[in-house]
What does this fold into?
Amino acid sequence: MFSLFPSMSNDRAYSRRWPALFVLSMALVMVVAANTSLTVAVTDIQQKLHAMTSQTRWILDAYPLTVASLLLFFGAAGDRYGRRLGLNLGLVGFGAASVFAALSTTPGEVIAARALMGVSGALIMPATLAFVRVLFPPSERKTALTIWSASSGLAVTVGPLAAAIAERFDGEIHSVPDAATAAEIVPELLRSGDVVLVKGSRGVGLELLCRALSAGVRV
It folds into this structure.
């Protein structure tokens, strides 16, 4: 069966754990940046889409609300069915939903696209965290988790910055940051995805995700 992530042995994946961490961190940056990218553009959204106040609020909130609602559910589903499937579906879905957002012309379409991106983000985030647990031995796991968490903080800054640049040069602020981010990052993640493919990745994600959320990792 065709797979976006070719099969490999555990030994090979383990030996490439640091490049894998870079790929996983990029995926997390993409997910978090999509949440923060529109915070600088509320007025522009209302003007360009002729959106009412309630519609503007849903454009901003549909993504984080969907991610937060489904995060633990997809964490448990990944434990049961495997993280490879969740990561594959999440990356492809995120890219497709971003294109949908870029082509949207009404507030309702943008809200729907943002919600679909949220579903994809909820698939991606717990999968990246579970793979960090699988790839790194206990002696290196703390460092890897620190880097993974730091990438989330980086994305908080990257999102508004990307939105400001898109507004400056393009103007389609409601869609361009997400679509541009996905267009650049998703293909690279899919090309590099073989470095994060390991067997035995089930059953570790939900527990680690709950610990991360309890420690205050920002979504």
